[in-house]
Amino acid sequence: MGEFVRSATNIGVAAVLLFIFVEAFLKFYQKQTDRNENLYTQFTEDAAKREEQYRQDIERQKKEYKQRESILVAESSRREELLKEEASKREQLLKQESAKREAALINTIEAFSATMEKISKTMEDIKNTTERMQTKIGGIEDKIRKM
């Protein structure tokens, strides 16, 4: 019986120690689980914050890109207008220069035509004068023959 009591005492002490060990292990495991859950929760919250920050950054960049694109389109339109205006001015200047040259050419042609008319008239006068002279010479020849 003594051995039984000692055995029971050893078994009781072992059981108590086992119970304390299991309880300590369970508390440690529970703390570890709570810590892991807290870390996971913190990680997911941080990930959500980073994701929100990234989304905001992307939205901001999209707005900046749209603004830049609008500025570039406006600048392109402005340049196109300037080019059109410059082309129109050049075309107008070319038309004016062409009109001036055409007027000068017409004046030259008119002057040439007037000169040609004068030459024709002078030639006509010379012809008429020559004919009159031939007529007079013919009359003189007739008088010389009659004499």
Task: Walk me through the structure.
Helices cover 99% and strands 0% of the residues. The termini are far apart. With 147 residues, it is mainly alpha-helical. It has 1 helix and no strands. The chain is rod-shaped.
Order of helices and strands: H
**Would you tell me the structural class of the helices and strands?**
mainly alpha
**Mean pLDDT, as a whole number?**
90
What's the β-strand tally?
Answer: 0
Shape: rod-shaped
- Amino- and carboxy-terminal Cα gap: 209 Å
Give helix % range.
over 70%
Give unreliable regions as ranges. none
| Assembly of the depicted chains | single chain
Instruction: Give a quick account of the main beta sheet: strands, pairing sense, barrel closure.
Output: none
Gyration radius over CA = 62 Å
Structure annotation, total helices: 1
Quote the beta fraction. under 5%
Present the secondary structure layout.
Elements: H1 2-146
Give a concise summary.
The chain is an all-alpha fold. Helices cover 99% and strands 0% of the residues.
Characteristics:
147 residues; mainly alpha; 1 helix
